[in-house]
Amino acid sequence: MSRKVLPLTLDRLAELSAPCRSCLFWELDPVRRDRVPPAERAAVKEAWVSEVLREWGSCGRVAVVDDRVVGYLIYVPARFAPGAESFPTAPVSEDAVLLTTVWLEPAYAGGGLGRMLVQGMARDLILRGGVKAVEAFGDVGPLSGLNGSRCAAPAEFLAHVGFKTHRAHPTAPRLRMELSSAITWRDAALEKVLGVVRPRRHVPHPAPARRTH
After folding, report:
1. What pLDDT is stored for residue 20 in this prediction?
2. Which residues pair with 133 in a beta bridge?
3. pLDDT of 209 above 80
4. Euclidean distance between CA atoms 113 and 31, whole angstroms
């Protein structure tokens, strides 16, 4: 089985069968969101992704298994996600971008693809520079009474992949992952990309032996 993580594009977004494929929870404020007819929401989502790609650059990663897109995540500066303002632990820190959506087909949950998506996001942001951390609002589960209503990633999943509680809350904690600790420098593939692999130690050639007569 082939598994890989690739940048999010409009074509790959169109391949997703996720229920959040047409969800506009993060992309619009509640008033504007309610004005969009259901039949137009997927097109509005595509237009939003296109805008972010044009104005900010890469904003997501997709999980591909045997050439089929089975999951994705999206991360953006908070200004592109007015829906985040509804969280009681908002706003996102100024030195961080916001991880909004993380979704995998249920058949592929628990197999490490979620971690691969988060690592792909971290690599992208480290290579681009200028971003210190990633923050996300966590869903604490059914006991909160809000489970699934805010389109937030499970807080348990976020903690499992390296996020730590930045601002506690009973239903909507804000978690944070420092990029400096997201990926170890022993990740050889990343080291090669960044050019930080330690150079091979130079050992001088021995001087030629002096000829005796």
Report:
1. 82
2. 96, 178
3. no
4. 34
With a CB cutoff of 8 Å and minimum separation 6, the contacts of 142 are none
Phi, psi dihedrals of residue 199, rounded to the nearest 5°: -65, 150
Q: What is the pTM of this model?
A: 0.83
Q: What's the CA gap between 113 and 162, in Å, rounded?
A: 14
Going by C-beta distance under 8 Å and a sequence separation of 6 or more, which residues neighbour residue 109? Answer: none
Q: How confident is the model at residue 67 (pLDDT cuts 50, 70, 90)?
A: very high
Q: Is 49 exposed, middle or buried (0-12, 13-18, 19+ CB in 10 A)?
A: buried
Judged by DSSP in three states, 154 sits in strand
Helix (H) or strand (E) holding 183: none
Contact 78, 13 (CB under 8 A): no
Whose CA is closest to 102, among 57, 45, 154, 156? Answer: 154
Domain architecture of the chain: domains with CATH: 3-194 (3.40.630.30)
